[in-house]
């Protein structure tokens, strides 16, 4: 529970900073890419969570993997490592996307179908979801 609250605080601070710098959309894209990479690589998650690997090595690895990341993201890695929270990176990225979506009134829905959707069906489903949620 405490790690979840910490992750929430880091995610909120990152989003606030991004909004202050007017880079929230770019940071959101980077965070989503990082989260996707973490979710698709058990090996990377193991390295980040490993108590055997020192925090500076974790930051070096993340900086090498995400070499095109912005200074803001690289600073996030450094701050998390300095505060012994680098193992929470996946939770921070998840919380960030939740906060970003909430602040931007973005709703996430999962549609499961037996057949591939045609563009017309996709439009109808999107329209129905919008009417049900009151979103535009």
- Unreliable residue stretches: none
How many strand segments?
Answer: 0
**Percent range for helical residues?**
over 70%
Kindly report the CATH topology of the largest domain. Peroxidase, domain 1
Q: How many domains make up the coordinates?
A: 2
Note the overall shape: elongated
Order of helices and strands: HHHHHHH
User: Approximately what portion of the residues adopt beta-strand conformation?
Assistant: under 5%
Q: How would you characterize the largest beta sheet?
A: none
CATH architecture of the largest domain: Orthogonal Bundle
Structural classification:
mainly alpha
Mean pLDDT score, rounded? 91
CATH C-level class of the largest domain is Mainly Alpha
Radius of gyration, in angstroms, nearest whole number: 18 Å
């Amino acid at each position: 529970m405490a790690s979840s609250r910490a992750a929430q605080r880091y995610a909120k601070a990152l989003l606030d900073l991004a909004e202050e710098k007017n880079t929230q959309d770019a940071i959101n894209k980077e965070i989503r890419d990082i989260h996707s990479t973490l979710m698709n690589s058990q090996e990377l998650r193991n390295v980040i969570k490993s108590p055997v690997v020192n925090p500076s090595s974790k930051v070096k690895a993340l900086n090498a993997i995400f070499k095109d990341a912005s200074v803001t993201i690289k600073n996030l890695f450094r701050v998390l490592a300095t505060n012994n929270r680098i193992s929470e990176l996946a939770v921070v990225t998840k919380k960030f996307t939740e906060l970003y979506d909430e602040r931007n009134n973005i709703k996430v829905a999962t549609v499961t179908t037996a057949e591939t959707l045609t563009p017309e069906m996709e439009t109808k489903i999107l329209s129905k979801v919008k009417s049900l949620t009151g979103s535009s």
